[in-house]
Write a sequence for this structure.
DNA sequence: TATCCATCAAGTGGGAAGAAGTGGTAAGAA
DNA sequence: TTCTTACCACTTCTTCCCACTTGATGGATA
């Protein structure tokens, strides 16, 4: 590999939960270059492998799944089962399934983001990866900053949710 | 490492509660160096081990959990109704999971705080660790001073009101 | 009993090797 | 010929390791 992560503030690899399930966490900043190439955070690569599935996400971001996770989700969707995606939302299913693209990660850990997905997520050059449990999310940096600020403004909601999660 | 902690103002060592649960207490001052390294208070190290999880907290501080404690918390997240279709759940998961980082403590007891977390907690060089039961909190020194002062003012007011109400 | 010294433990700083991100060029496909 | 993909090279950052400084502690001696 070449230059080296400067924007990126990795500290430690993502964790695999005791159940063997993938557990992505953390926030990483990267840049999309002229050729629309984008480095997958090094810490995500081990977990995600050589092929990932990119789909339009919610709130102007993209979702990035492992192939395995994608199979599980799309299986649930097509089976009409209730899942994290709750089958009653057909529109959402089409949105997710229809926009999905399988993407190869190259030898140095980069992937190509197709234009229609870049547009959806309003990605410019500076982007942010988020590890959110079993998926990664890809945000334009500015969009993410704004979204995050909005969340943090609702501090009381956050406190309540933290309490529910067992944090006192 | 050399002879001994100087900036650090230990108040009380950590203790293990009778139930075997971790119980951190005390207030410690440390500094973040040029490479964003930060010594974990020596008193916390035994309890917290070689790996800790750092997450954004409330009131502009960071939470530092043991891996075990983090597993418990993230378990709550998956156990609960965390449908991806609910906007507030998405936001909370992004806040907590996306903000979380697993951090290794190095041979001399230092950890690296990633930039996005330093930003959130407004950490400069002087920081304060607080032991808060089963987690540690990390504050910028100035922010902490201000926060504590505000709390104390409120406490005074409260005490006064209670006194007026006949409670001594 | 008090002071001084020696030893220990903890924090801080810097350098070097390796890992990772980014840019460019060349080869192949459309 | 042009766009895409694969490969290569360079630079920067991260991380590990080592050394130095400093505060604390315990023991010995006056």
């Amino acid at each position: 590999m070449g230059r080296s992560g400067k924007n990126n503030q990795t500290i430690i690899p993502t964790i695999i939960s005791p159940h063997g399930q993938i557990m992505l966490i953390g926030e990483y900043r990267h840049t999309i270059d002229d050729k629309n190439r984008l480095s997958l955070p090094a810490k995500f690569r081990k977990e995600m492998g050589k092929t990932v599935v990119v789909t339009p996400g919610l709130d102007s971001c993209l979702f990035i799944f492992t192939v395995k996770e994608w199979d599980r989700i799309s299986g649930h969707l097509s089976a009409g089962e209730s899942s994290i995606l709750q089958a009653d939302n057909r529109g959402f299913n089409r949105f997710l399934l229809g926009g999905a693209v399988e993407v190869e990660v190259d030898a140095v850990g980069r992937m190509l983001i197709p234009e229609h997905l870049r547009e959806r997520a309003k990605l410019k050059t500076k982007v942010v990866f988020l590890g959110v449990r079993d998926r990664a999310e890809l945000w334009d940096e500015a969009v993410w900053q704004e979204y995050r600020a909005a969340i943090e403004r609702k501090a009381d909601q956050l406190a309540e949710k933290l309490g529910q999660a067992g944090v006192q």
